[in-house]
Amino acid sequence: MKKKILIADDDPTVLDVIKMILDKAGYKTETTLNGRTLLNNLPEDFDLILLDVRMSGIDGFMICRHLKSQESTRGIPIVMVSAVPELGARTRNSCADAYLEKPFNMHDLLRIVEKYTSPDKPISPPVTSPAD
Predict the structure, then answer these.
(1) 87 burial class (0-12, 13-18, 19+ CB within 10 angstroms)?
(2) Contact yes or no for 8/82 (Cβ under 8 A)
(3) Which of 2, 14, 109, 128 could form a disulfide bond with 132, CB atoms 3.0-4.6 angstroms apart?
């Protein structure tokens, strides 16, 4: 069964390139240009989400924290993708599982996708609020 990956980026060219690479590698992909769709329609049936940090009108880190705080989407690995330097610390604070800096090459993309869609993928810890 093909692993299902959601690609969220507000740049149609980036979406097309990532989709083409992953489709050719045998993954099933869906795309969205609008980050708000991830907040309104929780993407529960995906094996991985590739999420751009700077989505039009909404912060990818906020989307990530929201998805990781929901029981139905908490277990889906999220890889943040961005050209923002020093993304590592902010990624950990948003509860993302990993990050990929733009520009990236095809092999780096496939390596991280394989890591987070394999049967022995790392497990995301649940997100708790400061009041917990």
Answers:
(1) buried
(2) no
(3) 128
